[in-house]
Each structure stands twice: as structure tokens, then as C-alpha cells.
């Protein structure tokens, strides 16, 4: 499995406190079946003043330590980038980081306030050529009042990442409800740990994957923790990546509508025969013109 969201870099945010905790998290991940780990510390003005170059440096140092301790975990760079107004400019400057320097970028919205321009913000990222991955929507306190916004974002090309711990109930009933509902409705692309430590918010991707498989099946569960995370690291275009069955069915209905097929229920083949409309408008117009001409001449 590949885990795309983890606060494993030591001493940089509210994740791993020091190197020993980081190494222990890495051991737990390997034991759980994780082979590739994205290091995604917070970059959050006012709370965690981290930056891209600093994250790269710490990741290289941790990779060396893992190798020295024979812990078979390959690290890639990333960040839990908090929403900021000049997000695209900061990505381009290297202050914010995408995942493994791909087009895919984690975006963390505020937990307790719905940003007023959230759709414009994400469209701006899409237009700039990035694929935003919105982190843990199921844990945002405002999802209930704004669920339609999240659905619209997915249909525009934004990906959603839910947390394994939400499926286990670690974040409470609300987060569990929304994680399960989004899975059931096909709106989840990635499952990740968002690990912060070895006890509280510990990694449990295998358990999360198995719980997801009960709802969406084994193939989709594999997509959540292997296929799509691998595509992110390989920077594959989203069109080359499988979507959930539910999303695929919704898209087929949309394509059908474009061609007059209302989901298959009201489809009528366009009649392309000449004068197929069955009315006599051209002839009628000619007749009325002839009538007016006659009256004029009389
Ligand atoms: Fe996070």
C-alpha cells in the first residue's frame, strides 16, 4: 500500500515528536503493509511556518535514518497545504509542495469555517493544471451543510481523501458517517492514515482498507490505497486513473443526457429524414406569402 498523508517528519508540526517516534511510525507502517510513504507536514501560516525546502531536507534526513535502521519504507515529499489565497503562486515558487512533485496536491480546508470562495479556489487550482486532493472532508465540521459543494467539486475534477481512522470510528460518529456515505456514493479517491503518532492517531491503513472493502468491494479498496496513490506518484493524468463505479455510472448518465438519452429512459433516436418534423412550416409560410401577394396585387 501507499500512504499519501502522514505527519511523520520529526519535530516540524503536531506529528512525530522526534526521530524515535518517526522511526516507530515507519516500523508500524511497514508492518501494516505500507511500502511508500508521503511525508506531508502542515504548511499553515500562523500555526506551522514550514516551507518546501525545509520539508525536502527533513525528508532526505529521515530516509537516511530509515536506511540505516533497515526499515524498508520509501519516502516521497509532500505537504498538508492549508488553503491560502495565493496557493498557486506558492506552489510554483516551491514554498508549498505537491505530492512527489506531481500535479496532485493535498489541500487542507479550515476545519470549522466553510471558506466563502471554496469552489473558485479549487477551480483556480484545476485551471493551473493541478489536481487538488481535498484532505479529510469527512472530518470538517461544516460538511453537513455544504455536502453538495463537495459533490460538485468532485464532478469538476477535485479528488477527495478520507482518513482510515474515520472508518474505524476514531474521529467520532460524525466523521464515520460522512466517510462511509462518501464511499457509498463514490466520492472518495484516496484513503490515507494522516498519522500523527504511535498511540493517538496511529497508522491503521490496512484496517481502514478492509473496512472500506466491505462497502465498496475489494477492487475499489485496492484503488483507494494502491492504484490511485501509485498514479499520483507516477503523475498519471486523472483520465488514466480508474474512478469509483458510482462515479463512473453518474458520468455515463451525463454523457447520455448530452445525446438526448435521459439515463436510458427517454431516449428517442433523432429522425434525420427530410421534413421529418412533420409540420408544414416552410410550405405554410410560402402559402401565406402568396396570399399576401395576391391581396396586395388585388
Ligand atoms: Fe494532516
General description of the model:
With 298 residues, this protein is an alpha/beta fold. The chain has a domain at 2-102 and 161-254: Metal-dependent hydrolases (TIM Barrel), CATH 3.20.20. The chain has eleven helices and nine strands. A six-stranded parallel β-sheet has the order 3-5-6-7-8-9. The protein has a three-stranded parallel β-sheet with strand order 1-2-4. Strand 7 (131-135), helix 5 and strand 8 (159-163) form a beta-alpha-beta unit. Helix 8 packs across helix 9. Mean pLDDT is 89; it is low at 262-284. The structure holds fe (ii) ion. Fe (ii) ion is lined by residues 5, 7, 80, 135, 194.
Short key terms for the protein model shown above:
6-stranded parallel beta sheet, 298 residues, globular, 3-stranded parallel beta sheet, alpha/beta, binds fe (ii) ion
**CATH third-level topology of the domain at 2-102 and 161-254:** TIM Barrel
Look at the structure and give the CATH class of the domain at 2-102 and 161-254: Alpha Beta
Major sheet description: 6 strands, parallel
From the alpha carbons, calculate the radius of gyration and give it in angstroms. 26 Å
CATH architecture of the domain at 2-102 and 161-254: Alpha-Beta Barrel
Order of H and E elements:
EHEEHEEHEHEHEHHEHHHH
What proportion of the residues is helical, as a percent range? 40-55%
Strand content: 5-15%
Bound molecules: fe (ii) ion
Oligomer: single chain
Cα shape: globular
The helix/strand class is alpha/beta
Strand order of the largest sheet: 3-5-6-7-8-9
Task: Give the N-to-C terminal Cα separation.
Answer: 90 Å
Put simply, the count of helices is 11
The CATH superfamily title of the domain at 2-102 and 161-254:
Metal-dependent hydrolases
Mean pLDDT metric: 89
Q: How many strand units?
A: 9
Low-pLDDT runs of 5+ residues are 262-284
Amino acid at each position: 500500500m501507499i500512504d499519501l498523508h502522514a505527519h511523520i517528519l520529526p519535530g516540524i508540526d503536531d506529528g512525530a515528536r522526534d526521530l524515535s517516534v518517526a522511526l516507530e511510525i515507519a516500523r508500524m507502517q511497514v508492518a501494516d503493509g505500507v511500502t511508500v510513504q508521503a511525508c506531508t507536514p502542515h504548511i499553515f501560516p500562523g500555526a506551522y511556518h514550514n516551507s518546501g525546502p525545509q520539508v525536502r531536507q527533513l525528508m532526505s534526513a529521515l530516509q537516511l535514518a530509515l536506511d540505516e535502521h533497515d526499515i524498508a519504507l520509501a519516502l516521497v515529499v509532500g505537504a498538508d497545504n492549508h488553503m491560502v489565497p495565493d496557493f498557486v503562486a506558492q506552489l510554483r515558487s516551491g514554498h508549498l509542495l505537491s505530492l512527489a512533485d506531481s500535479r496532485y496536491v493535498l489541500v487542507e480546508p479550515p476545519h470549522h469555517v466553510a471558506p466563502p470562495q471554496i469552489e473558485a479556489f479549487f477551480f483556480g487550482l484545476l485551471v493551473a493544471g493541478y489536481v487538488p486532493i481535498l484532505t479529510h472532508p469527512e472530518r470538517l465540521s461544516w460538511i453537513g451543510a455544504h455536502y453538495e459543494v463537495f459533490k460538485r467539486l468532485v464532478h469538476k475534477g477535485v479528488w477527495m481523501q478520507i482518513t482510515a481512522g474515520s472508518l474505524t470510528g476514531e474521529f467520532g460518529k460524525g466523521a464515520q458517517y460522512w466517510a462511509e456515505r462518501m464511499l457509498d456514493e463514490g466520492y472518495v479517491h484516496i484513503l490515507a492514515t494522516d498519522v500523527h503518532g504511535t498511540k493517538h492517531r496511529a497508522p491503521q491503513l490496512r484496517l481502514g482498507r478492509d473496512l472500506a472493502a466491505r462497502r465498496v468491494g475489494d477492487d475499489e479498496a485496492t484503488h483507494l490505497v494502491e492504484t490511485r496513490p501509485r498514479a499520483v506518484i507516477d503523475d498519471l493524468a486523472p483520465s488514466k486513473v480508474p474512478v469509483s463505479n458510482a462515479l463512473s455510472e453518474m458520468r455515463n448518465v451525463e454523457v447520455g443526457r448530452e445525446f438526448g438519452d435521459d439515463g436510458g429512459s427517454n431516449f428517442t433516436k433523432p429522425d434525420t429524414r427530410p421534413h421529418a418534423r412533420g409540420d408544414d412550416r416552410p410550405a405554410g409560410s410560402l402559402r401565406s406569402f402568396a396570399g399576401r401577394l395576391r391581396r396586395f396585387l388585388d
